[in-house]
Amino acid sequence: MISFESVTKTYPGPRRAAHEVVAVQDTSFTVDTGTITVLAGSSGCGKTTLLRMVNRMVTPTSGTIRIDGDDIAELDPVKLRRSIGYVMQHAGLLPHKTVAENIAVVPRLNGATKATARDAVGRMLELVELPSDMGGRYPAELSGGQAQRVGVARALADEPNILLMDEPFGAVDPLVRAGLQQQLLDIQPELGTTLLFVTHDMNEALRLGHEIILLAEHGRIVQQDSPGQLVAEPANAFVEDFLGLNGMDQNLRTRITEDGRTLVVDSLGRPAGFLEQT
Ligand SMILES: Nc1ncnc2c1ncn2[C@@H]1O[C@H](COP(=O)(O)OP(=O)(O)O)[C@@H](O)[C@H]1O
Ligand SMILES: [Mg+2]
After folding, report:
1. Which of 9, 15, 21 to mutate for ligand 1's pocket (most ligand atoms within 8 Å of CB)?
2. Is 198 exposed, middle or buried (0-12, 13-18, 19+ CB in 10 A)?
3. Which residues pair with 66 in a beta bridge?
4. FRET pair for 94, CA 20 to 30 Å: which of 20, 136, 156, 182?
5. Whose C-alpha lies nearest to ligand 1, atom 5?
6. Under CATH, which number does the domain 2-248 receive?
7. pLDDT digits (tens, 9 = 90+) for 51-110
8. Domain locations in the chain?
């Protein structure tokens, strides 16, 4: 479990400006082990800041972040970072290394032999459904979708317990994005990884999240719920707006009950998820 306890982050303001920038203010939430939690919200609301605090690329100004109860401030930052996978928007591959070398980076840093790292590369290419001969290519020779697959393969190569993804599919076209999302949904339960996924795209959040944390300014949590619950019972107009439900007839949100489970369908006919049993 990852827990954020009253976490605040302020950055120094722009040069010579008097005011600090409050990126995140007093935010608390928990992420269950082995689930997909999506941090959703508009640009600038603090998503990246929250994500990068988990692997200590950003240090909170105040508050505590724990992984399985341990305060991460007391863990070795290098070890911590290597035990957590990270995928960013533009895959962030090293341009002068081949695909295979890129995927092998973290296992090698963690002390894997060349042979062990080579095995990991093979397994990872298979996992993300890239042909094994792609290992010899350079990042510039890949399509956007292929590069993101390599980014995911690299992040997972040393079998991290936690995977952080920051708008990883934002720059690829919708069809490729849907394929990448589906692949992630296939891989995550197989590996049991705790996935914290950032997006400003509500459709993506609804599709991927077991749990969605919808954020407003300064990382303020507006609602944390399952996708079904969020669509069925948006906490307020902000949530409705974000879901694109605003102004729509409430009845357009259809509920279909089957085998005692209730599926919620949003106003555009997209299944948003199951309602929690109460
Ligand atoms: N390194 C930084 N220095 C100064 N301000 C920053 C820095 N990183 C982020 N910010 C500011 O903090 C706020 C939150 O940013 P960010 O976490 O990147 O949001 P998001 O990922 O949701 O777009 C924004 O106002 C942004 O301009
Ligand atoms: Mg961001």
Report:
1. 21
2. buried
3. 3, 71
4. 182
5. 11
6. 3.40.50.300
7. 999 999 999 999 999 999 999 999 998 888 878 999 988 878 999 999 999 999 989 988
8. 2-248
